[in-house]
Design brief:
single chain, about 375 residues, mainly alpha, 14 helices, about 0% strand
Amino acid sequence: MKWTATPLWLWTLLGIAGFGLGLALHLFWHPLRRHLSEGLDALRHRRILLGWAGLGAIATTLWPRPDEVTSQIELPASWMQLLSWENGPLILLQRSAAEATLPLHQVNPPWPLALLIPAALILTLVTLLRRPYATGLKRRLCAADCWLFVGLCLSSCLWLGLEIHRPLGPEWLLAARDALRLAFEALWTAGFQVWAARLLILWRRPETETSDGEAARAWRDLQGRWRQIIALTAFNAAWMSLRLWIHLERLPWVELIILEMLLVFSPLPLFIALNSAETAFRTSGGQTLSLLGRALPSLLGLLVTAIALMALLLQTQVSLRPMLVAAGLPPTAAALPFAFMLAIARNWLFLAAGLTFMAHLPGAPTTD
């Protein structure tokens, strides 16, 4: 029997099984298998991360972003096409590399969960006014900081109203809505990354016992680091706007610029979570570049695993979703399992990367 006469479903099963077996063997002999295993343990014991991952997957599938930024690289529609296309494996590699570096700075898609930003900002302002020392700060907010927070709260409420109402007004109003959407999505991304990193640190390095749970403790620590979060938001807005520009101009190969940016500054959210609430953002930036020099070989080794994992998930999604829809499953229901699997993979890779960076910190215990 010729390979071209093989049924599509058999091609799909053989492709998934072969790629999955190769990935399993790769993980078994991986030099960073301990960090990968501990990342999976952290994800299993911190189920709130799984909850947010599932909520984000469901919300993104049911309510996609109005101007969703997707890769311009079209994947082969089946495993048979992957092998028959002249540049099929290279296309999958490029798309997987872009997806593998994204969790380092955006573990979950910000839309539409970023619409919770107004409530989060108001709660943070109330906490900083009433209990600033519980967040790790050594002084109360000054008048300028209070006005800054009030402005952020009002701007976020205005943006929420524009998103719900979806006006068809003048272009300047739509442009303002899009700019606010980008800004608050960058803020949500920065806050969630530091909160998840703080959860990982509390799991890896338990501190003194408190009456609050680790999730609440991480949230309180996040509130105290609001200055660093705003600075990280500016960095996120830069690469997110660059990614949007690449999408609009249809320049898929320029995504390598974003890949380099995300790799170079990959330890930044971790250092913001590790440092005290009073630490300046530039200090965290300097520590990031210093650590990257020591952890770069390990980071590249982890990136190889991340690319292989994303390649398996993306190609499986592209191959199986049309079969499920053809079998009578609604398109949304067919997309949900794959969205959830991608969300779990992103969280796992983010935690494994954080543990890898922590192993290269000065004074960290050596591991086999």
